[in-house]
Design brief:
The radius of gyration is 20 Å and the shape is globular. Helix 4 (about 130-135) packs across helix 5 (about 145-160). By secondary structure, it is α+β, with helices and mostly antiparallel strands. It has helices spanning about 25-35, 80-90, 115-125, 130-135, 145-160, and strands spanning about 45-50, 55-65, 65-70, 70-75, 90-100, 105-115, 170-185, 195-200, 205-210. It contains five helices and nine strands. Strand 1 and strand 2 form a beta hairpin. It has one domain: Pnp Oxidase, Chain A. Strands 1, 2, 3, 4, 5, 6, 7, 8 and 9 form a nine-stranded antiparallel sheet that branches.
């Protein structure tokens, strides 16, 4: 198979400065709404990139669970590999790959833990099986067989019965405080449109067009 033959033209439309909101969060919410309306599978799926203590970058897909002027939110096990990397280096990057719309959004910023109250509010809204999974999985650690994980789930079902499942003290949310946000729109003949927002020291946003 010759992978060099895989190519296509991006003809969905261009992106101009006048089409952008002055606030990257407002622009992101607009594009996210359009991704949802366009039937994009998993429109809130985002690639989270971190760098660990050895300087090794790593990426994984997590789900966006909230966005506001304060930042982008996701939840995880605080003992996971991603959480350990964030503890070492809180500078992270997010990528939203909306390929069907010939768009992508990249966010660079600082990750900070959310409050216990915010994390508990979301945890208690999750399906019960997801709550049990948060307790059962020692995320990122080796396990010899899936049966052991399933046995742990069964044990937890018995332990908690039909009562409320408490929030694990090792589980919670992160909020990514954006410092740069780039909007990419595919263009014909590889002349893509790229605009990047930069957070100014005074708090406003500066927008620059970047070459493709």
């Amino acid at each position: 198979m010759n992978y060099e033959d895989f190519r296509r033209e991006y003809l969905a439309g261009g992106l101009r400065r006048g089409m952008l909101d002055d606030c990257p969060i407002a622009q992101f919410e607009l594009w996210l709404q359009q991704a949802v309306a366009g039937g994009i599978p998993d429109p809130t799926a985002m690639v989270l990139a971190t760098v660990d203590e050895q300087g090794c970058p790593w990426q994984r897909i997590v789900l966006l669970k909230g966005v506001s002027g304060r930042g982008f939110v996701f939840y995880t096990n605080y003992r996971s590999a991603k959480a350990q990397a964030i503890a070492h280096n809180p500078q992270v990057s997010l990528l939203f790959p909306w390929n069907a719309l010939e768009r992508q959004v990249i966010v660079a910023g600082r990750a900070e833990k959310m409050s216990a109250l915010e994390s508990a509010r979301y945890f208690l809204s999750r399906p019960r099986e997801s709550q049990l999974a948060a307790w059962a999985s020692q995320q990122s650690r080796p396990i010899s067989a899936r049966a052991l994980l399933e046995a742990q789930i069964g044990s937890l079902r018995e332990q908690f019965g039909r009562g409320e499942i408490p929030v694990p003290d090792f589980w919670g949310g992160y909020r990514i405080l954006p410092e740069q946000v780039e909007f990419w729109q595919g263009g014909a003949h590889r002349l893509h449109d790229r605009f990047r927002y930069f957070l100014e020291p005074a708090g406003g946003w500066r927008i620059e067009r970047l070459q493709p």
